[in-house]
Amino acid sequence: MTAPYPQSALAGAGPDAALIGQLGWTMTIAGTVLFVAVMFLALRGWRARRHVDTRVWIIGGGIALPLVLLTALLWWSLATTARLARPSSLTPLRIAVTAKMWWWEVRYTDPATGRDIVTANEIRIPAGRAVYLGLTTSDVIHSFWVPALAGKVDMVPGRVHGLTLRADRPGVWRGQCAEFCGAQHAKMALHVVALAPGEFDAWLAAQARPAPQPADAQLARGRAAYLARRCDACHTVRGVGAGGTLGPDLTHVGGRRYLAAGTLATHRGTLAGWIADPQAIKPGARMPATRGLEGDELRALAAWLESLK
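^ C-type cytochrome, sequence as received from the core. Prediction below:
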């Protein structure tokens, strides 16, 4: 598993992030230069206060110098931000992202059938191609932020805010909800995975398929446990059970890098721990503990979910 790049606005991996980083560094350097210059002039003026015209120092160092520098910075910052990509729903690849307490629903459109392909907490995109994200929320205000790829965009109930996202190269970048949204705000992460275009097309085609059939007896027991415990009342596994929508779609959950919005790496052990007692891992999460599910039944269910890739 490739480790994610650091969650940092100082290591831009897309055109918008590079511009934002350039803007931040320029403002920091210019502000430092201005501060040092004003302090230097103030010190010179204090030492020579009996021999200089204070009006020259006040007008020159206190008004003219900051005014010229700040005006230049304002003009340059406006010109730079105007170069940021403007959201356009005409972008060929459109992805709908809905923030929920405290996870992310990600919805693609199958190019072959026009049907929705739903996943969670992970946004896969083709490297080198712009994608349009339609950002909204189903409950409180959240904020979408993947600092290495783009700026922060608020997600407001009843509205869809657009963001054009592009990764210059394949890789994994961590993002975070950047607006306090409740008890588990700190554990509401997401990952953007940029794939080579051909690899992305193959992944999207695989995501459109229903869950694979159990390959052995243990996986069949896990599938039976999923139905017997009524997991399908809240979750969807396409082709299995009723298909609830309160929780994340689990059709291909085993192929995701993390569980519970970036809280746990995905493997059989973490799946079992999360199913048995999610409140111990993420207190306040909407998923209740599964009472009485343990031993072979729990291991079989975790193994079956891990196999859904």
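Residues 93-196 form a domain with the Immunoglobulin-like fold (CATH 2.60.40.420).
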